[in-house]
From TrEMBL:
Domain BLUF: 6-97
PROSITE patterns documented for this protein: BLUF (PS50925)
Lineage, top ranks: Bacteria, Pseudomonadati, Bacteroidota, Flavobacteriia, Flavobacteriales
Organism: Polaribacter marinivivus
Domain of life: Bacteria
Pfam families attached to this UniProt entry: BLUF
SUPFAM superfamilies xref list: Acylphosphatase/BLUF domain-like (SSF54975)
The protein's name in its UniProt record: BLUF domain-containing protein
Ranges that cross the membrane: none
Amino acid sequence: MIKNNLIQKVYYSISNFVASPEFIKNILEPARIANQKQDITGCLIYHNNVFLQLLEGDKNKVENLFNIISKDSRHREVTLIFEENINERIFPSWSMAFHEFDDNNEEVEKFIKSVQFFSENNEKPSEAVEMFWNMAKHIVN
Ligand SMILES: Cc1cc2nc3c(=O)[nH]c(=O)nc-3n(C[C@H](O)[C@H](O)[C@H](O)COP(=O)(O)O)c2cc1C
């Protein structure tokens, strides 16, 4: 049984800018400070103009942040692909881990495609989420 109020949300979006290190830094630095204050943790992945972000923390705080992020003009088509109550965080010590994949990464292409497929078909994105976890582990280690 889940006794706390922790949730996880995963969404993807399309960047409105080509991601320079500065563009990413302008998103990440304040996000990490704000997340720390709110005890929100997670992971942001960038590849080929697509952001994929996992947010975890108190339900109300994550909902609020997701609403704010959805309206951010630096990206568009913010699409929620997964949402779940959780017992434990995957990123307990990351106010926002970040990873950028280079262009020739087949694993990422496959992942992005399955994310799009599942969100279009409105099903629980189990395969996509499993791949996210695998990538996430890879980033943290
Ligand atoms: C891809 C992306 C990811 C973001 N992730 C976070 C985040 O994890 N935490 C956060 O506080 N802001 C994040 N932001 C920034 C928010 O959209 C917003 O600009 C920030 O919370 C400041 O909001 P405010 O001006 O209403 O205070 C992200 C923005 C983008 C484009």
